[in-house]
Write a structure and sequence with these properties.
By secondary structure, this protein is α+β, with helices and mostly antiparallel strands. It has 3 domains: about 240 residues, Bira Bifunctional Protein, Domain 2 (BirA Bifunctional Protein, domain 2), CATH 3.30.930.10; about 100 residues, 3-Layer(aba) Sandwich (Rossmann fold); about 70 residues, Translation Initiation Factor IF3, CATH 3.30.110. Helix content is about 35%, strand content about 30%. The protein has 14 helices and 25 strands.
């Protein structure tokens, strides 16, 4: 256990807040609910962003940028959409301030004719643009993504997991057919699964959301759901098939190959800085973060152990060719020359979750070697200088595989199957996923939520409701679903 960090077993929420602060990831901004992402936290987000952006582009999408401000009338054009976000919208009513008797006040003469909404999501402004850009089937598909900030005025906030302003990517695509839109939605879901599992070492469940849990204005919503170490679910990415809802609202049509006018089909999808919360809570331990190597700001942190300038010079000379070779092999390294004790640095980088710690002292130089310490297992090994690059690559790969295997085993051992509602309630109390039957009615879903706080996370793609009964009503199950308490 690291000093000043609440153990997970004692209070997981306090542990999370302690780690975010002590690992130097973020802190609260001056406006309630806002977040300052500090350099180390932003470097982690940058690496996640790079990996995801590459996958999105490889799938044929391009990046663009749309305005932060949206006319209120745009939101009013899609009733379900505005209903879903109405209570979270920040509204701009005036354009300037003025000084009165030494106080800064809103200038009443600057009142806007039409209020402006600070984007909670960009569907409306983007579809107003798509109306201008789409005329013919030759203009489709239109595959655009943007990296941006959004504002949703949250009452209860927690750094990374739920903040008033957060960063994300939001993709918005237009298609000629319903089949193409559905295929796009599932393509993106698979990209999100790959991001979580192949890059972040977080196993996820994939599937469709229920009607009550889907995105406002969508036909279908699909998501990736991860289990955190307190056995709660975290929705970590969503992909929405919007059907023709936004095309109808904004009258976006195209001439098909038969010269007939049709409404286009739409999708939208997004991953936000919430995924940083997933990394923290899926892998972290009582010593702090354990960052997956592929997104770690520093994959190898070097701790030089020297007592005087002569030793420092000797270590620098020894390290320079090694660091150069690691750089040539795209390994992100950092040498920690801070005026602190080695023990302080060991603890600090354990807290920050650097995958590999490399220790180098005078005795190591004499033996032409270094000491490697794995953050995931704490295992120490002595590595000859000539083998450092190869061993680094092997160890980073092994750390990813081990973090993924640990998290997958944890999810598997805390996923339960039951047909008893009494047992269901006991499982909910102790935490975990529950796989069971559901009769498909929103009434049953709501009653379970009210009685247990558990929600249906997904209707999994591999569901098999045959011979199942609803966990609550005992009626024949329409779906096999995954219930859990969630963030």
């Amino acid at each position: 256990m690291s000093k000043g960090v609440t153990p997970q077993s004692e209070n997981f929420s306090a542990w999370y807040n302690d780690v975010v602060k002590k690992a130097d990831l973020a802190e609260h901004g001056p406006v309630k609910g806002t977040m300052v992402i500090k350099p180390y936290g932003f470097a982690l987000w940058d690496n996640v962003k790079f990996e995801l952006d590459s996958m999105i582009k490889d799938a044929g999408h391009v990046n663009a940028y749309f305005p932060l401000f949206i006319p209120k009338s745009f939101l009013a054009q899609e009733a379900k959409h505005v209903e879903g976000f109405a209570k979270e919208c920040a509204v701009v009513t005036h354009t300037r301030l003025k000084s009165v008797d030494g106080n800064v006040v809103v200038d009443p003469e600057s009142k806007l004719e039409e209020e402006v909404i600070v984007r909670p999501t960009s569907e409306t402004v983007i579809w107003a643009m798509y109306k201008k850009w789409i005329q013919s089937y030759r203009d489709l598909p239109l595959l655009i993504n943007q990296w941006a900030n959004v504002v949703r005025w949250e009452m209860r906030t927690r750094l990374f997991l739920r903040t008033t302003e957060f960063l994300w990517q939001e993709g918005h695509t237009a298609h000629a057919t319903a089949e193409e839109a559905e295929a796009e939605t599932l393509t993106i879901l698979e990209i999100y699964r790959r991001l979580a599992e192949d890059i972040l070492a977080i196993p996820v469940l994939t599937g469709r959301k229920t009607e009550s849990e889907k995105f406002a204005g969508a036909e279908h919503t699909y998501s990736i759901e991860a289990m955190m170490r307190d056995k709660r679910a975290l929705q970590s990415g969503t992909s929405h098939n919007l059907g023709q809802n936004f095309a109808k609202a904004f009258n976006v049509t195209f001439q098909n190959k038969d010269n007939k006018e049709e409404l286009v089909y739409a999708t939208s999808w997004g991953v936000s800085t919430r995924i940083i919360g997933a990394i923290i809570m899926a892998h972290g331990d009582d010593k702090g973060l354990r960052i997956p190597p592929k997104v770690a700001p520093h994959q190898v942190v070097v701790i030089p152990i020297s007592r005087n300038d002569e030793q420092k010079e000797s270590i620098t000379k020894f390290l320079n060719p090694i660091l150069e070779e690691l750089k040539e092999n795209s390994v992100r390294t950092k040498v920690d020359w801070r005026e602190e004790s080695p023990g302080f640095k060991f603890n600090d980088w354990e807290m920050k979750g650097a995958p590999i710690r490399m220790e180098v002292g005078p005795r190591d130089i004499e033996n032409n070697q270094v000491v490697f310490v794995r953050r995931d297992t704490g295992e120490k090994s002595t590595i000859q200088a000539k083998d450092i690059v190869d061993k680094t690559s092997q160890m980073l790969s092994a750390i990813h595989d081990n973090l993924f295997a640990e998290a997958k085993d944890f999810m598997k051992s805390n996923t339960n199957i039951t047909d008893s509602y009494e047992e269901f309630k006991k499982i909910v109390d102790r935490g975990g996923f529950i796989r069971c039957g559901w009769d498909g009615t929103s009434e049953t879903e709501l009653r379970i939520k009210e009685e247990t706080s558990a929600t249906i996370r997904v209707i999994p793609f591999d569901e098999n409701p045959k011979n199942l009964k609803c966990i609550y009503t005992g009626k024949p199950a329409k779906h096999e679903v995954i219930f859990a308490k969630a963030y």
